[in-house]
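Task card 7
Instruction: Convert sequence to structure tokens.
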Amino acid sequence: MSKEVLELLSIVLSAVIIILGWLYNRRTEEMKIMRSQLSERKHKAYADIVATFYSVLKDVRKNYQTNANMVESKLIDAKRDIFMYGSDKVFRAFTNWLVNTNNPNQSEHLDAYLKFILCIRKDICGKTGLTEDDVLLNLLQNKEELRSLKKMMKSQEVKN
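Output:
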């Protein structure tokens, strides 16, 4: 082959490599943007459902009448958002909690909620050192109430 053909081939191959590198970097950046958007939506979905729960808790503590229609609407939105953006584990924990909202055994309902909250934390943080008791103490803000509640939950477990 002549020197000119080799130079031309070298230029063409260099251009192809540069173009392929640019396309690869562009695709990688697009994937990062999509992952970031998905993560933002997932975190918003998790924050919305937790905010709804704390809103109801605030109403209960202040002896306010909770707007059931608003809570139901937010739960339906949360179902959609957690289905679309939540991890499989969070989705299953959320579904288990929803199923247990109709459970007459309140300790199973509370247990399902605590597992759901911890599942959210694990999904967001990667891992968590918090326990169900830590979440309960945060909700109750009283160690004696926590002990009483745990005692009551254990007695309900024995009955079942």
